[in-house]
Amino acid sequence: MKQKLGRWIIPVLGGLAFVYLLVPIAYIFVYSFNDAGRTNLEWRGFTWSNWQNPCGAPAVCESLVNSLQIGLLATVIATALGTCVALGLVRYKFRFRNATDILIILPLATPEVVLGAALLAQFLNLGWELGFTTIVISHVVFCMAFVIVTVRARVSALDPRLEEAAADLYANPRTTFWKVTFPLLLPGIIAAAMLSFAMSFDDFIITNFNSGNVQTFPKFIYVAATRGIPAQANVIGSAMFLLALLVVIIAQIMSYRKRKALEKAQ
Questions:
Q1: Residue 155 in contact with residue 90, Cβ under 8 Å?
Q2: Full-model pTM
Q3: pLDDT per residue over 201-238, tens digit each?
Q4: Which residue in 91, 119, 81, 112 sits closest to 210, CA to CA?
Q5: Cα–chain-centroid distance for residue 35?
Q6: Cβ contact 184:153 at 8 Å
Q7: Among 21, 20, 19, 43, which Cα is nearest to 32's?
Q8: Is residue 41 classed as helix, strand or coil in its secondary structure?
Q9: How far, in Å, CA of 194 to CA of 198, rounded?
Protein backbone atom coordinates (compact mmCIF):
# COMPACT_ATOMS: atom_id res chain seq x y z
CA MET A 1 0.00 0.00 0.00
CA LYS A 2 2.80 2.44 0.94
CA GLN A 3 4.68 1.61 -2.26
CA LYS A 4 1.60 2.27 -4.39
CA LEU A 5 0.98 5.55 -2.55
CA GLY A 6 4.60 6.62 -3.02
CA ARG A 7 4.42 5.72 -6.70
CA TRP A 8 1.40 7.97 -7.31
CA ILE A 9 1.89 10.88 -4.92
CA ILE A 10 4.77 12.56 -6.79
CA PRO A 11 3.06 12.44 -10.25
CA VAL A 12 -0.20 13.70 -8.71
CA LEU A 13 1.46 16.58 -6.86
CA GLY A 14 3.54 17.41 -9.93
CA GLY A 15 0.42 17.43 -12.09
CA LEU A 16 -1.42 19.70 -9.65
CA ALA A 17 1.52 22.11 -9.57
CA PHE A 18 1.61 22.12 -13.37
CA VAL A 19 -2.12 22.86 -13.57
CA TYR A 20 -1.72 25.63 -10.98
CA LEU A 21 0.95 27.27 -13.14
CA LEU A 22 -1.21 27.07 -16.26
CA VAL A 23 -4.41 28.49 -14.72
CA PRO A 24 -3.44 32.18 -15.30
CA ILE A 25 -2.40 31.40 -18.87
CA ALA A 26 -5.68 29.58 -19.48
CA TYR A 27 -7.57 32.58 -18.09
CA ILE A 28 -5.76 34.96 -20.43
CA PHE A 29 -6.41 32.68 -23.42
CA VAL A 30 -10.12 32.26 -22.65
CA TYR A 31 -10.70 35.98 -22.09
CA SER A 32 -8.97 36.81 -25.36
CA PHE A 33 -12.23 35.60 -26.96
CA ASN A 34 -14.43 37.71 -24.68
CA ASP A 35 -16.79 40.23 -26.24
CA ALA A 36 -15.53 42.69 -23.66
CA GLY A 37 -16.67 46.13 -24.74
CA ARG A 38 -15.20 48.81 -22.44
CA THR A 39 -14.06 46.41 -19.71
CA ASN A 40 -12.82 42.85 -19.69
CA LEU A 41 -13.74 41.91 -16.12
CA GLU A 42 -16.85 39.85 -16.90
CA TRP A 43 -17.58 37.25 -19.55
CA ARG A 44 -20.00 38.77 -22.08
CA GLY A 45 -19.90 36.21 -24.86
CA PHE A 46 -17.61 34.52 -27.39
CA THR A 47 -16.18 36.45 -30.33
CA TRP A 48 -13.38 36.16 -32.89
CA SER A 49 -13.11 39.92 -33.40
CA ASN A 50 -10.32 40.37 -30.86
CA TRP A 51 -8.05 37.95 -32.74
CA GLN A 52 -9.02 39.48 -36.07
CA ASN A 53 -8.09 42.96 -34.84
CA PRO A 54 -5.46 42.66 -32.08
CA CYS A 55 -4.65 46.38 -32.38
CA GLY A 56 -8.22 47.40 -31.61
CA ALA A 57 -7.39 48.72 -28.14
CA PRO A 58 -5.70 52.15 -28.09
CA ALA A 59 -1.88 52.06 -27.79
CA VAL A 60 -1.69 48.28 -27.33
CA CYS A 61 0.26 47.59 -30.53
CA GLU A 62 2.42 50.68 -30.08
CA SER A 63 3.49 49.46 -26.64
CA LEU A 64 4.12 45.98 -28.05
CA VAL A 65 6.36 47.34 -30.80
CA ASN A 66 8.31 49.35 -28.23
CA SER A 67 8.83 46.27 -26.07
CA LEU A 68 9.94 44.18 -29.06
CA GLN A 69 12.40 46.83 -30.25
CA ILE A 70 13.84 47.34 -26.77
CA GLY A 71 14.02 43.59 -26.12
CA LEU A 72 15.78 42.80 -29.41
CA LEU A 73 18.28 45.66 -29.11
CA ALA A 74 19.05 44.94 -25.45
CA THR A 75 19.40 41.22 -26.22
CA VAL A 76 21.90 41.77 -29.03
CA ILE A 77 24.07 44.11 -26.93
CA ALA A 78 23.84 42.06 -23.72
CA THR A 79 24.55 38.79 -25.53
CA ALA A 80 27.59 40.17 -27.37
CA LEU A 81 29.10 41.79 -24.27
CA GLY A 82 28.15 38.93 -21.94
CA THR A 83 29.70 36.31 -24.23
CA CYS A 84 32.98 38.23 -24.36
CA VAL A 85 33.03 38.61 -20.57
CA ALA A 86 32.25 34.91 -20.05
CA LEU A 87 35.11 33.89 -22.34
CA GLY A 88 37.48 36.26 -20.57
CA LEU A 89 36.55 34.99 -17.09
CA VAL A 90 37.04 31.34 -18.01
CA ARG A 91 40.01 31.49 -20.38
CA TYR A 92 42.19 34.18 -18.81
CA LYS A 93 43.67 34.78 -15.38
CA PHE A 94 43.95 38.35 -14.14
CA ARG A 95 43.97 40.34 -10.91
CA PHE A 96 40.66 40.84 -9.09
CA ARG A 97 39.09 37.94 -10.94
CA ASN A 98 37.19 36.81 -7.84
CA ALA A 99 35.98 40.36 -7.24
CA THR A 100 34.72 40.45 -10.81
CA ASP A 101 32.67 37.31 -10.16
CA ILE A 102 31.02 39.03 -7.19
CA LEU A 103 30.25 42.12 -9.26
CA ILE A 104 28.58 39.95 -11.90
CA ILE A 105 26.35 38.29 -9.30
CA LEU A 106 25.28 41.63 -7.80
CA PRO A 107 22.70 42.53 -10.51
CA LEU A 108 21.16 39.07 -10.04
CA ALA A 109 20.94 39.43 -6.26
CA THR A 110 19.93 43.09 -6.16
CA PRO A 111 16.16 43.75 -5.95
CA GLU A 112 14.83 45.33 -9.13
CA VAL A 113 13.50 48.31 -7.15
CA VAL A 114 17.00 49.10 -5.91
CA LEU A 115 18.60 48.56 -9.33
CA GLY A 116 15.94 50.65 -11.07
CA ALA A 117 16.27 53.51 -8.59
CA ALA A 118 20.08 53.42 -8.84
CA LEU A 119 19.98 53.59 -12.63
CA LEU A 120 17.44 56.43 -12.46
CA ALA A 121 19.69 58.42 -10.13
CA GLN A 122 22.63 57.87 -12.48
CA PHE A 123 20.71 59.06 -15.54
CA LEU A 124 19.43 62.14 -13.70
CA ASN A 125 22.91 63.01 -12.48
CA LEU A 126 24.21 62.74 -16.05
CA GLY A 127 21.38 64.94 -17.26
CA TRP A 128 20.01 62.34 -19.66
CA GLU A 129 16.41 62.49 -20.79
CA LEU A 130 14.49 59.36 -19.83
CA GLY A 131 13.17 57.42 -22.79
CA PHE A 132 14.00 54.64 -25.25
CA THR A 133 17.78 54.87 -24.83
CA THR A 134 17.73 54.77 -21.03
CA ILE A 135 15.42 51.73 -21.09
CA VAL A 136 17.80 49.86 -23.40
CA ILE A 137 20.83 50.70 -21.24
CA SER A 138 18.97 49.63 -18.09
CA HIS A 139 17.93 46.33 -19.67
CA VAL A 140 21.46 45.63 -20.88
CA VAL A 141 22.74 46.12 -17.33
CA PHE A 142 20.59 43.41 -15.74
CA CYS A 143 20.31 41.10 -18.78
CA MET A 144 24.08 40.90 -19.27
CA ALA A 145 24.51 39.17 -15.89
CA PHE A 146 22.16 36.37 -16.99
CA VAL A 147 24.05 36.03 -20.27
CA ILE A 148 27.42 35.80 -18.52
CA VAL A 149 26.25 33.09 -16.13
CA THR A 150 24.65 31.05 -18.91
CA VAL A 151 27.48 31.29 -21.45
CA ARG A 152 30.14 30.83 -18.80
CA ALA A 153 28.71 27.43 -17.91
CA ARG A 154 28.95 26.47 -21.59
CA VAL A 155 32.53 27.74 -21.91
CA SER A 156 33.59 25.80 -18.79
CA ALA A 157 32.19 22.60 -20.31
CA LEU A 158 34.20 22.89 -23.55
CA ASP A 159 37.03 20.45 -24.13
CA PRO A 160 40.19 22.53 -24.72
CA ARG A 161 41.72 19.62 -26.66
CA LEU A 162 39.44 20.46 -29.60
CA GLU A 163 41.00 23.89 -29.93
CA GLU A 164 44.44 22.41 -29.46
CA ALA A 165 43.73 19.98 -32.28
CA ALA A 166 42.72 22.87 -34.55
CA ALA A 167 45.99 24.64 -33.68
CA ASP A 168 47.93 21.45 -34.53
CA LEU A 169 46.26 21.56 -37.95
CA TYR A 170 47.74 25.06 -38.49
CA ALA A 171 44.54 27.01 -37.79
CA ASN A 172 45.19 30.53 -36.54
CA PRO A 173 43.35 31.80 -33.41
CA ARG A 174 40.65 33.58 -35.44
CA THR A 175 39.89 30.49 -37.54
CA THR A 176 39.91 28.30 -34.44
CA PHE A 177 37.38 30.55 -32.75
CA TRP A 178 34.93 30.76 -35.65
CA LYS A 179 35.29 27.16 -36.84
CA VAL A 180 35.59 25.35 -33.49
CA THR A 181 34.86 27.47 -30.42
CA PHE A 182 31.89 29.50 -31.64
CA PRO A 183 29.88 26.55 -33.03
CA LEU A 184 30.33 24.74 -29.71
CA LEU A 185 29.27 27.85 -27.79
CA LEU A 186 26.30 28.60 -30.04
CA PRO A 187 23.69 26.55 -28.12
CA GLY A 188 24.62 28.34 -24.90
CA ILE A 189 24.63 31.73 -26.64
CA ILE A 190 21.18 31.10 -28.12
CA ALA A 191 19.84 30.01 -24.73
CA ALA A 192 21.31 33.12 -23.10
CA ALA A 193 19.83 35.36 -25.81
CA MET A 194 16.37 33.82 -25.39
CA LEU A 195 16.57 34.27 -21.62
CA SER A 196 17.77 37.84 -22.06
CA PHE A 197 14.91 38.71 -24.43
CA ALA A 198 12.34 37.17 -22.10
CA MET A 199 13.69 39.13 -19.13
CA SER A 200 13.74 42.39 -21.12
CA PHE A 201 10.29 41.98 -22.67
CA ASP A 202 8.73 41.04 -19.32
CA ASP A 203 10.37 43.70 -17.15
CA PHE A 204 8.18 46.34 -15.52
CA ILE A 205 9.91 47.65 -12.38
CA ILE A 206 13.23 48.81 -13.88
CA THR A 207 11.42 50.02 -17.00
CA ASN A 208 8.94 52.03 -14.94
CA PHE A 209 11.79 53.88 -13.23
CA ASN A 210 13.70 54.74 -16.41
CA SER A 211 11.16 54.91 -19.25
CA GLY A 212 9.92 58.48 -19.04
CA ASN A 213 7.01 58.86 -21.46
CA VAL A 214 7.83 55.71 -23.45
CA GLN A 215 5.20 53.03 -22.87
CA THR A 216 6.12 49.36 -23.05
CA PHE A 217 3.75 46.41 -23.08
CA PRO A 218 4.14 45.61 -19.33
CA LYS A 219 3.48 49.29 -18.50
CA PHE A 220 0.39 49.23 -20.70
CA ILE A 221 -0.89 46.14 -18.88
CA TYR A 222 -0.25 47.73 -15.48
CA VAL A 223 -2.18 50.90 -16.36
CA ALA A 224 -5.01 49.00 -18.05
CA ALA A 225 -5.43 46.52 -15.17
CA THR A 226 -7.44 49.01 -13.11
CA ARG A 227 -10.31 48.85 -15.59
CA GLY A 228 -9.76 45.31 -16.81
CA ILE A 229 -7.03 44.35 -19.24
CA PRO A 230 -8.32 44.77 -22.82
CA ALA A 231 -9.10 41.56 -24.66
CA GLN A 232 -6.62 42.59 -27.36
CA ALA A 233 -3.83 42.53 -24.76
CA ASN A 234 -4.92 38.99 -23.87
CA VAL A 235 -4.69 38.13 -27.55
CA ILE A 236 -1.11 39.39 -27.73
CA GLY A 237 -0.18 37.61 -24.49
CA SER A 238 -1.69 34.35 -25.75
CA ALA A 239 0.08 34.70 -29.09
CA MET A 240 3.44 35.27 -27.37
CA PHE A 241 2.90 32.20 -25.20
CA LEU A 242 1.97 30.04 -28.19
CA LEU A 243 4.99 31.33 -30.12
CA ALA A 244 7.33 30.52 -27.23
CA LEU A 245 5.74 27.07 -26.91
CA LEU A 246 6.25 26.50 -30.65
CA VAL A 247 9.93 27.45 -30.38
CA VAL A 248 10.43 25.01 -27.50
CA ILE A 249 8.69 22.19 -29.40
CA ILE A 250 10.78 22.80 -32.53
CA ALA A 251 13.98 22.85 -30.45
CA GLN A 252 13.02 19.57 -28.77
CA ILE A 253 12.23 17.94 -32.12
CA MET A 254 15.56 19.07 -33.59
CA SER A 255 17.43 17.85 -30.52
CA TYR A 256 15.65 14.48 -30.71
CA ARG A 257 16.47 14.05 -34.40
CA LYS A 258 20.11 15.01 -33.82
CA ARG A 259 20.39 12.52 -30.96
CA LYS A 260 18.87 9.76 -33.08
CA ALA A 261 21.22 10.57 -35.95
CA LEU A 262 24.22 10.31 -33.62
CA GLU A 263 22.97 6.99 -32.28
CA LYS A 264 22.64 5.61 -35.81
CA ALA A 265 26.10 6.87 -36.72
CA GLN A 266 27.58 5.01 -33.78
A1: yes
A2: 0.83
A3: 989 999 999 988 889 999 888 888 776 778 888 888 88
A4: 119
A5: 31
A6: no
A7: 43
A8: coil
A9: 6
